Amino acid sequence: MPHKEAVSGLRQALQAMTEETDGARHPELLRELSREHPNTIKILESLHPLHRFTCFVHAFGFIERPQYVSIAQIGFNYVYAGPEFAHWLFDQGHLTEVTESDLVLNDLAFYTSTDGRFRHAAIFLGSDRFQSKWGLGYLFEHRLFEVPDSYGNSARFFRGLSYAQAIRSFVCYAESKGMRFRKRSLSEDSQ
To answer: Which CATH class is domain 41-187?
Structure first.
């Protein structure tokens, strides 16, 4: 296990990397910072345009899913799968919290700030490996705290949701924000 200061230095360097607005430079910046801050981070290929999804959209399996996209486009910057949706899921009892030692494949890690608010989401891949989308940048595979500093210094863990569970919950969340849907449109993407 790396020394706490080494992890802190890595996380600060990763923060600076993700603040680079030209995401195409992130691979080069990761190679450079890895010389000074050894890590196990891997950049992953994405089947979808990186600018079209966030860490929470990725964690809930909503990337390019027609039903999610149609709701999020209507409620852009108001109703989308972000930290507020994750807190709503928790508050409504739709998430089952687990310990880190009880994680199973596809469970979720929500990184928290000092005030306990969710800041970032990752999917558990097994063997202390997680997958998450970083800001405007790439999809990464990493250890739990091989992430940018701004994502928080602690994490909470939850059972992963199936797509059907997640989208049903997202529709309820959108309705709680005042959106209304025809019943037929809700079932079109639930497979």
So the answer is: alpha beta
